[in-house]
Amino acid sequence: MSEAAPTDDRGTLYIVATPIGNLDDITLRALRVLGSVDLIAAEDTRHTRKLLTHYDISCPMLSYHDHNKVSQAQRLLGLLQEGRRVALVTDAGTPGIADPAYHLLQVLLPHDIPVVPIPGPSAAIAALSVSGLPMNRFVFEGFLPVKSGRRRQRLEALREEPRTVVLYESPHRFVKLLRELVEHFGAERRVVVARELTKHYEEVMRGTAGSLLESWQERSVRGEFTVVVDGQ
Ligand code: SAM
User: The pTM is what?
Assistant: First the structure.
């Protein structure tokens, strides 16, 4: 069966994981699907265009991101109900893991639209896999809330968490996060910082919350960060 063959006349949505940096990190199946669907819904069409150009794939695109998700989900529902095959991609990794795929599924699933996963990279799993921290059980927390009250509450709730915790953080809040980990979890808690995974400046730093805060306070903070924290 061709990968993107419609399963019936309702069309199919493919949730396609894409690289988190290194363009080689894409599966053969993902390329086949991206090359054969009717439409690609992308978080940032310019960003995805680079991936498609690299693999010589041409396909119409539609933007689907946090700010237009409500109207675009309805539009995609209509297209899928007409029998179109659509691939959903985000800027990096697996759609839905801390990026805007959830809303689309909430709209499509009550209409019985088939949804097919095309698995591949995710920064959380890549970081965890090299962290050296226990991986049998872990909690994915993604981004902590930005507002200080809710952020503090979340950190307090996580303080006693026995499982390894995986966090995403933007570069401009990254040092603040290390400071908060020292404050809430203690300076001795083991932490792993995975920066720019799969990219030219890939770096994995293992240490304690205190030692990592000390090093990062003196560095310029650039790139994408995933932070893995040892459980209590
Ligand atoms: N859906 C994506 C996934 O499956 O990994 C995550 C999307 S989320 C909007 C983006 C965050 O993932 C970044 O802010 C960063 O915390 C993390 N991230 C993405 N690429 C990364 C990389 N190459 N190295 C480390 N962390 C990364």
Answer: 0.94
Q: Which fold has domain 123-229?
A: 3.30.950
C-alpha to C-alpha distance for 162 and 164, rounded to whole angstroms: 7
Domain ranges of the chain: 12-118, 123-229
Assigned CATH topology for domain 12-118: Cobalt-precorrin-4 Transmethylase; domain 1 (3.40.1010)
Q: To test the ligand 1 pocket, which listed residue (97, 128, 168, 201) has its Cβ within 8 A of the most ligand atoms?
A: 168
Pseudo-torsion of CA 180, 182, 186, 191, nearest 10°?
A: 100
pLDDT tens, position by position, for the chain (232 residues)?
445 555 557 799 999 999 999 999 999 999 999 999 999 999 999 999 999 999 999 999 999 999 999 999 999 999 999 999 999 999 999 999 998 899 999 999 999 999 999 999 999 999 999 999 999 999 999 999 999 999 999 999 999 999 999 999 999 999 999 999 999 999 999 999 999 999 999 999 999 999 999 999 988 899 999 999 999 9
| Binding pocket residue ranges, ligand 1, CB within 6 Å | 20-21, 90, 92-94, 97-99, 122-124, 168-170, 194-199, 224-226
Name the residue among 102, 229, 210 with its Cα closest to residue 165.
229
Q: Would you state the structure tokens that stand for residue 177, as one six-digit string?
A: 């996060």
